[in-house]
Design brief:
89 residues; alpha+beta; four-stranded mixed sheet; 2 helices
């Protein structure tokens, strides 16, 4: 298990953000993911000992140009970014 909370693309960046070439948008997704990690770490102080059900996947609007789908898995101490949708600007 991981020692600290973090986020990652699941299954991998190529699958989740492949084809999105707007680097500013991707940077905003990753900044928001950092915020979600801080919130999850505060909510689940020792995620490795969490015995409840993992929260459901949720959607997060980045701005008018897109959104992403993520899931918090306390036992892994991870926020998994599952899908990113860029609608354009």
């Amino acid at each position: 298990m991981a020692d600290a909370w973090a986020w990652e693309y699941d299954p991998d960046p190529a699958y989740v953000i492949g084809g999105i070439d707007n680097l500013a948008f991707i940077a905003r997704v990753e900044e928001r993911a950092d915020e979600l990690v801080r919130a999850a770490a505060a909510l689940y102080l020792d995620g490795t000992k969490y015995t409840g059900v993992s929260p459901r996947m949720q959607e997060e609007a980045v701005d008018a140009s897109g959104m992403f789908v993520y899931q918090v898995v306390p036992r892994h101490q991870r926020v998994y970014i599952r899908q990113v949708a860029f609608l354009g600007s």
